[in-house]
Amino acid sequence: MNSCLLLLEGISIGELTFVFLIVLLFFGSKSIPKIARTMGRGIRQIKDASQQIQDDIKNSVSSDESTNVNNSDKKKLES
User: Fold this and answer.
1) Residue 32 class from Cβ within 10 Å (0-12 exposed, 13-18 middle, 19+ buried)?
2) How many domains does the chain have?
3) Does the predicted model carry a pTM greater than 0.70?
4) 9 vs 12, 13, 17, 21, 52, CA distance in Å?
5) How far apart are the first and last CA of the chain?
6) Spacing of C-alpha 13 from chain mean position
7) What are the residues whose beta carbons fall under 8 Å from the beta carbon of 35, sequence distance 6 or more?
8) Count of other CB atoms within 10 angstroms of residue 43
9) Which domain holds residue 73?
């Protein structure tokens, strides 16, 4: 949340209004909610995918660690 505010730190209200008016003229008032909804869904899919990748990596690391522990226990028992 704070990173989003940092990105907007150098932009004034006048500049935001100007950009909004240009977008309104270019896309029209009826299509802006559709565009925003589509962008929101895309961002949600990216967040979900990145979270899934992070979970897969964590599970892989934890399973590798448990496999290494089991292998070292077996070696100790064989000795």
Assistant:
1) middle
2) 1
3) no
4) 8, 11, 15, 20, 31
5) 55
6) 27
7) 27
8) 10
9) 2-78
Which is nearest to 57 in space by CA: 49, 47, 68? 49
Q: Are 35 and 27 in contact (CB under 8 A)?
A: yes
Alpha carbon separation from 31 to 21, 34, 70 (Å, rounded)? 14, 5, 58
Q: Which two tokens stand for residue 1?
A: 């949340």
Secondary structure letter of residue 15 according to DSSP: H
pLDDT attached to residue 75: 57
Q: Going residue by residue through the chain, which has 79 residues, state the pLDDT in tens, using 9 for 90 and above.
A: 455 555 667 778 888 889 889 988 988 888 888 988 999 999 999 999 999 999 999 988 887 777 765 655 555 555 5
Distance CA 41, CA 63 (A): 33
